[in-house]
Amino acid sequence: METKVYYIDEKNDEIIKEASKVIRSGGTVVFPTETVYGLGANALDYKACLKIFKAKGRPQDNPLIVHVADFDISNYVKNVPEKAQILMENFWPGPLTIIMPKSDIIPDEVTAGLKNVALRMPLNKIARKLITYSNLPIAAPSANISGRPSPTSIEHCIEDLNGKVDMIIGGERCEVGLESTVVDTSDGNVTILRPGAVTKEMMEEVVGNVFIDSAVLDRLKEGEKPRAPGMKYRHYAPKSPLIIIQGDLKSSVSYINEKIDENNVKGLKTGVLATDETFKEYKGELKISVGSRKKPGIIAANLFDCLREFDKIDVDIIYAEGFNEDGINLAIMNRLKKAAGYNIVKV
Ligand code: AMP
Ligand code: MG
C-alpha cells in the first residue's frame, strides 16, 4: 500500500484533520507522542485495530493502549478506581498509562481479551489534536516492527512501517524517548507493570505505596504469566547480541576493553554503549555515548536511537554499561535488560 508521509508541526491543522479522516474511516496513522511515535487506529473499531497488529507483526495477545484527549473516560471504563483518579489528576496529560476495568464498548481485540483497558492522555499537541479532530479514542502501540527498538523519530517509523500504514505524520524527536509508565489500578492498588518517566517516587507522593510487578526487574520464570502480556516478549533489541556490564565504572571499562581485545583476535567487531563519562576510555571506534550519567532524562531520550545506530554500523556483539535503578533509571535498565535478553555480567 502507499503510505502518505507529512513532515509537520502542531500548527498544521490541515494535515492533522486529513489524518483524523483516515482514523475515522478505519485506517492507520503514525503520529508523534512525547514518549515514542504511535501507530494509531480507531479504538472502537476492531477491524481497524487488527490492521495495527498486522502492520507491526504484533502478537494478538499483546493489548493496545487507548489514547484519549478528554478527562471524561466514563464511556470506556466500568469505574474509575480512586487511585486512578488521583493519578489522572496529577500526571495527565503525560507519559502515564493507567489500567482500569473496561466497558463493553472497548473491543476484545484491543485488550487481547482482558477485562481491563489501558488508557493514556498524551501531552504532545499533534497527538491531542489528532484525537480531538477524530472525536474518537485512538488505540496506539509504538510505531515499530514488533521486537525492534521503539521509534523516537519519524525516520525510525519510515524505516519500519513505510508501505504498511496509511499515513505517517510528525517530524519532531520524542522528548521522553521511552514508552509510558504503565500502572494497573484495577484491584485498588497501584502496581507498576512497565516503568517510565513518571516514576514510582513521583506517584508515591500523591497515592502512597506503589508496588513494582516482578516482571519489571527480572526475567519471567518458565510458564509464569505476566500481568502486562507485552512484558513476555523480547523487546527493543538491536540485531546483534547485547550484554550489560554491571558494576563500578572502572571495572566495567577494563572488562569491556579486555573483551574488545579478545574479540579482535577472533575477528569479531565489538560495539560499546558508553556514557559521556567513559566514552574516551574505550578502545576502538565502534562506540556510542548514550549521554551523561548526570542527565538520565537525556539518556532515556537517546537510548532507542543508539540501539538502532548499532544496527547501521554492523557490529557482532555489543557491551552496554549498566545503571542503578532509582527514578527514571529503573525504566532505562528495564529496556536495556529486555534488549539484552537479561544477559548481564556483574564485574
Ligand atoms: P506498547 O503499546 O507497545 O507500548 O505496549 C503496551 C504495553 O502495555 C504492553 O506491555 C501491554 O502488555 C501493556 N498493556 C496494554 N493494555 C493492557 C491491559 N489491558 N492489561 C495489562 N497490560 C496492558
Ligand atoms: Mg511497543
UniProtKB/TrEMBL annotation:
GO cellular component terms given for this protein: cytoplasm
Q: Name one GO biological process term.
A: tRNA processing
Looking up InterPro entries in the UniProt record yields: DHBP_synth_RibB-like_a/b_dom, Sua5-like_dom, Sua5/YwlC_C, Sua5_C, T(6)A37_SUA5, TC-AMP_synthase_SUA5
| PROSITE patterns per UniProt | YRDC
Coarsely, its chief localization is cytoplasm
> Where located?
Cytoplasm
Could you say which residues bind L-threonine here?
T35, H67, R120, A140, S142, S180
Chain positions recorded as ATP binding sites: R58, N62, S150, R194, Y236
MF-aspect GO terms:
ATP binding; double-stranded RNA binding; L-threonylcarbamoyladenylate synthase; tRNA binding
Q: Say if the entry is tagged with keyword Cytoplasm.
A: yes
Stretches assigned to the YrdC-like domain: 13-198
The protein's annotated catalytic reaction(s) are: L-threonine + hydrogencarbonate + ATP = L-threonylcarbamoyladenylate + diphosphate + H2O
Stated EC number for the protein is: 2.7.7.87
The entry's keywords: ATP-binding, Cytoplasm, Nucleotide-binding, Nucleotidyltransferase, Transferase, tRNA processing
Name the domain of life this protein comes from: Bacteria
State the family named in the UniProt similarity comment for this chain: Belongs to the SUA5 family.
* PANTHER family found in the cross-reference section: SUA5, THREONYLCARBAMOYL-AMP SYNTHASE
Q: What does this protein do?
A: Required for the formation of a threonylcarbamoyl group on adenosine at position 37 (t(6)A37) in tRNAs that read codons beginning with adenine.
This protein is called what?
Threonylcarbamoyl-AMP synthase
Q: Which organism is it from?
A: Caloramator quimbayensis
